[in-house]
Every structure is written in C-alpha cells, then in structure tokens.
Amino acid sequence: xxxxxxxxxxxxxxxxxxxxxxxxxxxxxxxxxxxxxxxxxxxxxxxxxxxxxxxxxxxxxxxxxxxxxxxxxxxxxxxxxxxxxxxxxxxxxxxxxxxxxxxxxxxxxxxxxxxxxxxxxxxxxxxxxxxxxxxxxxxxxxxxxxxxxxxxxxxxxxxxxxxxxxxxxxxxxxxxxxxxxxxxxxxxxxxxxxxxxxxxxxxxxxxxxxxxxxxxxxxxxxxxxxxxxxxxxxxxxxxxxxxxxxxxxxxxxxxxxxxxxxxxxxxxxxxxxxxxxxxxxxxxxxxxxxxxxxxxxxxxxxxxxxxxxxxxxxxxxxxxxxxxxxxxxxxxxxxxxxxxxxxxxxxxxxxxxxxxxxxxxxxxxxxxxxxxxxxxxxxxxxxxxxxxxxxxxxxxxxxxxxxxxxxxxxxxxxxxxxxxxxxxxxxxxxxxxxxxxxxxxxxxxxxxxxxxxxxxxxxxxxxxxxxxxxxxxxxxxxxxxxxxxxxxxxxxxxxxxxxxxxxxxxxxxxxxxxxxxxxxxxxxxxxxxxxxxxxxxxxxxxxxxxxxxxxxxxxxxxxxxxxxxxxxxxxxxxxxxxxxxxxxxxxxxxxxxxxxxxxxxxxxxxxxxxxxxxxxxxxxxxxxxxxxxxxxxxxxxxxxxxxxxxxxxxxxxxxxxxxxxxxxxxxxxxxxxxxxxxxxxxxxxxxxxxxxxxxxxxxxxxxxxxxxxxxxxxxxxxxxxxxxxxxxxxxxxxxxxxxxxxxxxxxxxxxxxxxxxxxxxxxxxxxxxxxxxxxxxxxxxxxxxxxxxxxxxxxxxxxxxxxxxxxxxxxxxxxxxxxxxxxxxxxxxxxxxxxxxxxxxxxxxxxxxxxxxxxxxxxxxxxxxxxxxxxxxxxxxxxxxxxxxxxxxxxxxxxxxxxxxxxxxxxxxxxxxxxxxxxxxxxxxxxxxxxxxxxxxxxxxxxxxxxxxxxxxxxxxxxxxxxxxxxxxxxxxxxxxx
Length: 978
Ligand SMILES: *[C@@H]1O[C@H](CO)[C@@H](O)[C@H](O)[C@H]1NC(C)=O
Ligand SMILES: *[C@@H]1O[C@H](CO)[C@@H](O)[C@H](O)[C@H]1NC(C)=O
Ligand SMILES: *[C@@H]1O[C@H](CO)[C@@H](O)[C@H](O)[C@H]1NC(C)=O
Prior knowledge:
Blueprint lengths: L6 H14 L15 H11 L1 E2 L21 E3 L6 E5 L6 E2 L13 E3 L4 E5 L3 H9 L2 E3 L4 E5 L13 E3 L4 E3 L14 E3 L6 E2 L13 E3 L4 E5 L13 E3 L4 E5 L12 E3 L4 E4 L13 E3 L4 E4 L13 E3 L4 E5 L12 E3 L4 E4 L13 E3 L4 E4 L4 H4 L4 E3 L4 E2 L11 H4 L2 E3 L6 E3 L12 E3 L4 E3 L14 E3 L21 E3 L21 E3 L21 E3 L6 E3 L12 E3 L4 E5 L19 E3 L13 H4 L18 H44 L21 E4 L19 E4 L3 E7 L5 E7 L8 H12 L9 E6 L4 E6 L6 H7 L8 H20 L12 E3 L5 E3 L13 H8 L8 H4 L7 H17 L4 E3 L4 E3 H10 L17 H14 L10 H12 L1 H8 L1
Parallel strand pairs: 3-5, 4-6, 5-7, 6-8, 7-9, 8-10, 9-11, 11-13, 12-14, 13-15, 14-16, 15-17, 16-18, 17-19, 18-20, 19-21, 20-22, 21-23, 22-24, 23-25, 24-26, 25-27, 26-28, 27-29, 29-31, 30-32, 31-33, 33-34, 34-35, 35-36, 36-38, 37-39, 39-40
Antiparallel strand pairs: 1-4, 2-3, 41-45, 42-43, 43-44, 44-46, 45-46, 47-48, 49-50
Helix pairs in contact: 1-2, 7-11, 7-14, 10-13, 10-16, 13-15, 15-16, 16-17
The site of one 2-acetamido-2-deoxy-beta-D-glucopyranose (NAG) has 7 residues, from loops.
C-alpha cells in the first residue's frame, strides 16, 4: 500500500473520524450494520503494514469479523474475544482500533515487526481488559512505565520476551494477583526484581532470563509460590545465595539460575523437588559437594552444575536419578573416580565430566549405555581405553572426547565400530601403537583428533573411508610413512594437521582436489619432492605450513601462494621461488616465451633490417613486459631499501676505519700484515704521503654502487682515482680477490678506464684507477648548462667509444654488469672511457643480495631479465644497458624521469615515438646547429634494438660497433639500416 488514497483508505479515514471525533459524521458510504469490532479491526489494519497481504480476509464490507483470519469470536455474543496474528510479518504501531474490541481477552502479536514504545496508553488499556497478552518477538522499545500494571484486572499471562525493552520491571506488577505467567526474557531490562514479587502467589512460570537484572533474589515468601513450575532467572547479574526455601515450591519443574553470580551451597530444601526435571546452575560460584539427598530429585532429566566451584566426589546417589538424560559437571573441582552407579541411569544420553580432577579408569557404563555424547577431557583418567566388543555405544555415540588425560596403551581397533561418531578427540594422552586402520569405519565422523600422543606407524590408507571428515589432526606423534593418496577421498576436509611427525615422501598431488581445505599444517616432517603446482587451486586456504621439511623445487604460483608467509615455507633447503628469495634453477622462460617473433634467427638483427612491422608486433608485448618489469622493480626496490638499511648499519663500522696514510703501505709489505698489500700493475706507485691524507673527503669524486671514489696524486704528479670498496659486499677471500683484480688489470683499451693497482686488507680494499679528468657522461648530459652541451658529433663519438670499450670487455670475457652514464667517463680530448667494469666478479656470487646495492642507481638500465627470478647475467645485459645509454645520449633524457605525477620510461617513450613515425621528435632539443637527423634516427633505432626485451634479439657489441661505423659512413651501409 503506497501513500495513494485508495477508496479503502478514504473509508478508513472516515471511520477514524467517525470513531474519534466529537461530531459524529454519518455518510452514505458507511455500512450502518458495522459493529464496533469490524470498525476497530479495520482501524487496526489501516495503521499497519501487511507486506504479504495476510489480512486480506479482513473486509470492511463484512457484517461480522468472526470469519476473518486470526479472529476468534464468542459463539453466543459473536463478539471478538481473541486475536491471534503470530508471525504475520506485520509491522507498524498498534493503534487505538483495538480499544473498540471490548470483549478481547487474548491478544497474540508475537513474531511480527511491531515497533514503538511500550508506554503506549493502548497497552495500559489492554492490560486492564485482557487476560493473555503475547507481544513477544517484536521490536517494542522503551521502558515499561510503572503505572501500566496498576489496573491489572484479570491478566493471567504477559509475554514481552525478545523485544528491546529497557529500564526496570515495574513494582506495580505485584498487583496483578491473577498473573500466572510472566515472560520478559531477552530484553535489556535492568535493576532488581520488583518488590513483593513473590506475593504473586498464582505464578506458574516466571522467565526473566537474558536481561541485565541484578541484586539478590528475595528470600521472603518464596515458599508461597506453591504453584510455580518454571523459575528461570538465567543469564542476568544476580548475586547472593539461592533462597533456602526454594524447595518449598513443590511443583517446580524447571529451575534455571545459570550464568549469574550466585554463591553458596545447594539449599537442602531442593531435595523436595521430586517433580523437578531441570536443574541448571551452570556458570555461577556455587561451592560445596553434591549432597547424597540429591537422589530424591527423582524426576531429574537434566542436571547442569558445570562451571562452578563444586568439590568432592561425584556421588553414588546420582545413580538413583533414573530419568537423568543429561549430566554436566564439567569445569568444577570434582575428584575421585566416576561411580559405577551411573550405569543404572539407563536414560542417560549426554555426560560431560571434562576439566575436573577425576582419576581412575573409564567405567564400563560409559560405553555400555546408549550414550550420544561423552566428554571426559581434561582430567587425570588413566589406563587403557577399552570399548568392549559389543558396546551399546557403537550404535549411539556421536561425540567422544577423551582428550587431555593420562590414557595409555593402544587405540582399540573396535573404534571403527562407532558408526555414528561425529567427533572423536583423543588428543593429548600417552597413546601408543598405530593409528588404527578401522578409523575408516567412522563413516559419520567430521572431526578426528589423535594429536599429541606417541602414535607410530603410518597413516592408514583406509582413512579415506571416513568420507565426511572435515578435520584430521595427527600432529605431534611419531608417525612415519607417507601421506596416503586416499586422503583425496576426504572431499570435505577443511583442516589437515600432520605437523611434527616423521612423515616422508611427497605431498600427493591429489591434495589439490580437496578444495575445502583451509588449514593445512605439514611442518616439521621429512617431506620431500616438490609442491604440486595444482595446490594453487585451493582457494579457501588460510594456512599452508610446510616449513621444516625437505621439499625442493618451485613454490606453486598464484592464489594463496602469492602471499604465503615465509615462515610457512622456511627451512626447506631446496625450495625456490620469490617468497623464499631463492631463484629457481633454470629460471623463468618468460622473456623467451614473449619473443614476438620466435622463428627469427638469433642474429637476425645483425643487419639491422628492423622493419616497422616488427616493432608494431612487439609493441604490445613490450608494454606488457614493461608493466610487469616496472612492478617487479618496485618490489625489488622495496627489498633493496630494506637491505640497504641493514647494510648501512654494517657499513658504519667499516667506514670508521681510516686509511693510515702513504707511509704505511708499500708493495714490499707482507700480505699477512695488518697493513695490507699494495699491488700496482703500472710501474711504481709513489703516493704523496704525509702532506695529504690518501682518502680525503675533500677529494671525493663520487659514489657508486661499489664504493666511494677519491682523487689523489702520485709523487710524479700523475693523478689517480682511488675507489674504496664497500667492505661488507666485498667479502671475497684475498686469493680470489687477487685473481679477479689481476685479470681486470690486464685489460687495456683506449675506451676503458685503466685499473692501475689495488690494496687489500680484510677490512679495506682499494682499487687504484686511471684518473679521467672531465667527469662522467651523466654530468655532461644532465648537469651541464645549455651552452656547453655536447654536439651531435661529440655524442656520436662517445657512443662509438663506449661501444668499442664494451666490445673489448666482452672479448676479454668480462661482463661490465653496471652500464650506465655515470660509469662512462670523458677524458680531456672528449674520448669516452668505460669504467667500473667487472666489479661484480669481485663479489662472492652474483646473487640477489649483491645485485641489490646497485639496482637503485641502475634503475632504467637494467635488462628485464634481471627482474625475473633468474640471475643469469650475460653480456646481453650490458647491451641492454648500452642501448638505454644510447637513447639517453641522443635524447638528453634520463632512463627514468619522474614527472609531477607520472613516470616516463625513456625506452618506452622513444619506442612509441618511433612507432608513430616521430622518432625525430625525441632528439635532444639542446642540440644546436646542423646535424644529420637521419643519422640520429638510425642511432635511435640501434639503441632500441640493443634495448630489446628479448635478450637474443640484442646484437653483440662487435656488431654494434660495425653498425655504428656504417652509420657514420653512409656510403657503405645506408640501405641496410633502412
Ligand atoms: C522485520 O523487519 C526486518 C527489517 O526491517 C526484516 O528483515 C525482517 O524479515 C522482518 N521480520 C518479519 C518477521 O517480518
Ligand atoms: C581436542 O581437545 C583438545 C583439548 O583437550 C582441544 O584443545 C582440541 O582443540 C580438541 N580438538 C578438536 C579438533 O576440537
Ligand atoms: C574412496 O572413495 C571411493 C569412491 O567414493 C571408494 O570406492 C573407495 O573405497 C574410497 N577409498 C577408501 C580408502 O575408502
């Protein structure tokens, strides 16, 4: 019903006016025959929402409402006496219409969505006139106003349970002398019990459970409640003791004071409750023993004394409670053995004695009765667990918890006979022997926990028979053998814990079929082989711990395994993958796979017949790789930053060592002395000593990934550059260091910075280099002003010189490893000299850790294969770096430039421009005067080929040199280039 004024609405509005206005309007549309009941109910209906049209039979045209749904009339007067609308999904407020129903004595609106304050005067009126009111399970709110019960009339039953009522229970309720049933449970009522509440001597049932009521339970006059059957004050904040005369309420069937703060011992009067079915005192502070007179509670079906401070023995007397079905004495301080007498309680179904201090054997009745649930956990029971061969429990038991006791011996194979067992927990005992294969007979089991015992042998294949298993825990035993393939039968398995055993073999691939798996712990075993890739299909995984095993090979990729914590895979010497920071041997074939033109010969680019089409083909692949590389770089940079912090801590110690000046070292010193050893490859070294500290901060030339460079002069006036290597990263032993440096010392080429000598002590290593006067190419490109910018010819010569230097290095089988413009120096005649080469060979191994120190500075020059997990560094990496350097020289732009909110990757930018036929627009704008644009474009193309994503597409340096020479001399190679 919307807000539209339907004819129905109009009529109702008229009715309301008719009912409540002082001037009575009578219109023709009104049916004069309507009685008050029809009017009242139509008004009631008009004010509520009836989304499912349950009140469709309520028709204003009818003479009588007696056939309407939910309406009951007195057969003689035909007046409405009862209104039952439970669970009609009605909502809204209760309107005045109901007041017209003068004969209404029963109102049930339970399980609807009625709201509003309970202060509504209509309710006051209803309470006055009715006998039964049920407003439970609605949304009534507010507090119950005190006067509401003053005129109680003949109210017999009031149920306000499950609403949102607050405040106190009005004292006025004590005036409802006819009241038999009070249910105010599950509200938010507070305060104490109403004064004189026990003067309501007609009470049969009082339920105030689940509120915030507090204070003591009044003792006076409680014995006058001779008709009381249900007494439920559970889940409140009541304190003090139980009324000692509570047992005088002889008809009590249900006594529930659970979850309060009650203290004291059990009042003796309780023994009179021979009709009582339920005694629930759980969750209080009751103390003392269970008295022998408890046997007189003959009708007891449920006894819950759990979570109290009861002490003493579990009395024999309980055996006389022949109706007992459920007995819970858990979490007390009961001692001694379980009485055999309980075997007489043939109706017993659930027993819980957990977490007491009980001792002795498990009595025969535990498996001899047809129990459904048995919990003996957390006691000091001893002996073997024996079920017998024909135990009645085989047919009935659903829950068996014997955990955390002192049980020993083997698990009987008859355990497989518990055909209905859902939960089996025998963990934390001293059980020995094997895991019985009969467990496969637990067809209904969802939990099996045998962890923390001393079980040996292997996990039986038959476990696959427990097809409904969700949780299997066998951790902390001495199990051997492998994980059975049959585990794949357990398709509901969510938890598998086998950690801390001696399990061997591989992890079965079929585990990946158990898609419900959430918690898997296989740690601390001897599992070997590799992790099945298919494991990444387990989409519900929360934990997958395989640490401390002997696994090898690559971690699965994707899904949970992308974010698996290191601690879950640690201590497996041969596992590899990015998570464990171990590259996998053989590396990733990805860059090769992405080769846009795989059939192209390795050296296809030799003649540089790089067609336009080919670039287009590769462009999307390049973008994809570029993006991936960029992300990977980000990850690496973060890792490096971390390592960097660590390194700098180490380093500070080394930096504190100052070099002790020229006097102290000469090449005649013994290598073993603390002073170290100086080796010069180029004749004699006479440092200017005394006058000049060798490593003078003022003479610092620059800093690189491998160390700091200082300028100093030899006695003959010649300058040298001394590189002080970062000690922590240069941990090679002296012999290796000697060998590698000597190899570098033999390399001589006009375009390579000459290594003149070195100095070695365990804590300080210096490389003595030729000094190149005009600074780095980087400085010339990016730090000079526009006036002295390099000309095209100079740039070309630098490129060519660099290429020649690099080609020579490669000829000598040395990988530069760190090509970038800061490592290309320019001498006074403008000749390029490549420096800092081969230093990587001085490092213990080319591992990631070592890479890390430089990647930051080399960002943008780094070949994409670095970003992959392989660290297979070949000359092709140098060629990539060279290609970027070429682009840098031609465009005058850094390999990676950070704009305000953008990152420009030089080679992507140039590639894009070339692709759009606008390569010339990339050429450095600072270049002045006449220069051959075509030559520039050819060099750009060469740079791009060198910077190919696919290593095999990059030419050799010798080829590069040839191509450059051809570019320089158009007569020979022009066609080939285009
Ligand atoms: C009561 O209303 C809530 C939302 O206002 C709705 O989700 C719920 O189903 C309703 N209950 C009944 C019994 O109609
Ligand atoms: C088995 O009982 C122990 C306590 O004795 C408990 O810690 C463990 O969680 C239980 N196992 C299962 C699967 O619930
Ligand atoms: C595994 O399941 C299959 C089919 O449900 C069944 O035939 C087989 O017996 C089961 N394996 C075990 C060990 O129970």
